[in-house]
TrEMBL record:
<keyword id="KW-0804">Transcription</keyword>
<dbReference type="InterPro" id="IPR036388">
    <property type="entry name" value="WH-like_DNA-bd_sf"/>
</dbReference>
<dbReference type="InterPro" id="IPR016032">
    <property type="entry name" value="Sig_transdc_resp-reg_C-effctor"/>
</dbReference>
<dbReference type="InterPro" id="IPR036693">
    <property type="entry name" value="TF_LuxR_autoind-bd_dom_sf"/>
</dbReference>
<protein>
    <recommendedName>
        <fullName>HTH luxR-type domain-containing protein</fullName>
    </recommendedName>
</protein>
<dbReference type="Pfam" id="PF00196">
    <property type="entry name" value="GerE"/>
</dbReference>
<dbReference type="InterPro" id="IPR005143">
    <property type="entry name" value="TF_LuxR_autoind-bd_dom"/>
</dbReference>
<dbReference type="GO" id="GO:0006355">
    <property type="term" value="P:regulation of DNA-templated transcription"/>
</dbReference>
<dbReference type="GO" id="GO:0003677">
    <property type="term" value="F:DNA binding"/>
</dbReference>
<dbReference type="Pfam" id="PF03472">
    <property type="entry name" value="Autoind_bind"/>
</dbReference>
<keyword id="KW-0238">DNA-binding</keyword>
<feature type="domain" description="HTH luxR-type">
    <location>
        <begin position="174"/>
        <end position="239"/>
    </location>
</feature>
<keyword id="KW-0805">Transcription regulation</keyword>
<dbReference type="InterPro" id="IPR000792">
    <property type="entry name" value="Tscrpt_reg_LuxR_C"/>
</dbReference>
């Protein structure tokens, strides 16, 4: 492994000015490692029942919007593994205790074009927790082999990427002025991220269904999104919407780490 690559990565991560810059850097690292997609999660688990995670997604929009739903996120077997282990995990090598959920997870990932993945846990002081996930699509010529080859370098940069994510998330307190969503548009988008239909959102917010559709169409236009799932993904990436990643149920499930 060339030290120049390692030092360049660390320097760029530390100098990333914001989440958009860090996202561009992650895309560049993935290209160098010959990886299609990435996801970086990070947060403090001092109180797991109320914990939230910041996220930087380079996953397909439809798959990411599905993972953003709290009930789905809490059942993610790769996250459950990461919460209980320091060991990297290839998706096709889930521990026996997570086989049932793992099969469903891998099958769903496959329907969204992902055929191989690698999840690297990050644990630090004062309850710091994070994850670097790398994944390849069905068009990748060597989806499994490239992940195996990327593992050493990915393990080296994982902690720094999580640290960079948390730093940029803290600094980016306000949403970009270039995408001014109204309060009602944000409300509709938030409930969309939770999997609610237009009719359900209208009942929750006590407004007409047509009004909900009107607000969501405005969101699509402002974000340049083709559909609601893509709008949710882009809003999360821009910091306009923070997914409510509750870990209270995820941490309750024991994971077999192979240790006896």
């Amino acid at each position: 492994m060339k030290h120049s690559w390692w030092h360049r990565c660390l320097s760029h991560i530390r100098q990333a000015p914001d989440l958009a810059g860090l996202h561009t850097l992650c895309c560049s690292i993935c290209r160098q490692l010959k990886i299609d997609h990435f996801l970086v999660l990070g947060g403090q688990l001092t109180n797991p029942a109320e914990a939230g995670l910041s996220a930087l997604s380079g996953l397909p929009d439809d798959w990411w919007s599905l993972l953003c739903r709290p009930e789905r996120f809490q059942r993610d077997p790769t996250l459950k593994h990461a919460l209980q282990s320091h060991l990297p995990l290839f998706w096709d090598d889930l521990p026996q205790s997570l086989e049932d959920e793992g099969r469903d997870f891998i099958a769903d990932a496959g329907t969204h074009g992902l055929v191989a993945g690698l999840t690297i846990p990050v644990h630090g002081p004062a309850g710091l927790f994070g994850v670097l996930t790398l994944a390849n699509g069905s068009d990748h010529p060597q989806p499994e082999k490239s992940l195996q080859q990327a593992l050493p370098r990915a393990c080296l940069v994982a902690g720094y990427l999580v640290d960079g994510l948390l730093r940029c998330s803290d600094e980016q307190a306000q949403p970009p002025a270039t995408v001014p969503l109204t309060g009602r548009e944000k409300d509709c988008l938030l409930w969309t991220a939770k999997g609610k239909t237009s009719w359900e959102i209208s009942s929750i917010l006590h407004i007409g269904e047509r009004t909900v559709i009107y607000h969501l169409n405005n969101v699509l236009r402002k974000l340049g999104a083709a559909n609601r799932q893509q709008a949710v993904a882009r809003a999360c990436a821009l910091g306009l919407l923070t997914p409510e990643f509750s870990l209270d149920r995820a941490v309750s499930a024991p994971v077999d780490t192979g240790e006896r």
